[in-house]
Amino acid sequence: MKTIVFTTVLITLLAGCQHHPKIDRDKLVAEICQSFKEDDRIDETDEIKIDRILSRHIDKYTYAMPDDSARALRDFVYVRLQRECREFREIVHHADKKNKKSDWAEVDLEPESQASKEDCDAFFNAGKLKYLEATGDTVVVNITSSIWEDRFPDGTYSRLSLQRTKQDEFVITFIESDNSIRKNMSHPGDQYRYKIIKKEGDTFSMFVEVVGPKLRSLFKMYY
Known about the structure:
2 domains, nine-stranded antiparallel beta sheet
């Protein structure tokens, strides 16, 4: 009798597990990105398109999840897609453009640097610089010869290693973060390539490329 009961319980547990497979989150992001690439509907707003495609892929996982877990999965996918998927990033930036409060701009081509050796040395010797998020929030960056550390207004941080590769270029590699957005956007080892374009007064014009997806942007950093 004990054997029968144990077997019945085991089968029940295994059957339950089959309804909650482990989610390969990066594979899910790739699948969602492909849907954005293939989608050609033009009769809906950006917000509705995003919600429709995300729901199609995510709801089958989140329907039986606790609210916190479901929200965490959606947050991860939404943020990670902005790093990995050009099509999704373009839609999000288009939807956010009317509320834009920063000086970031997406570009297709990489500009040539006009920065002198003195300009580049001033950047690397600055120790502390600032830049604006899309929300208008100011992020403080502590820079050493080997570390790039973002400090956000809510007290959270991101830490990345820094390697100067040319007079006017460097690569930062993600290590860790306790910021809710940055820890979803980057995995340990993800890289970002920067170029100093020029220095004007207390302002550095910068170029950044996400290594891998090759998403490119221009922005400014300030003393």
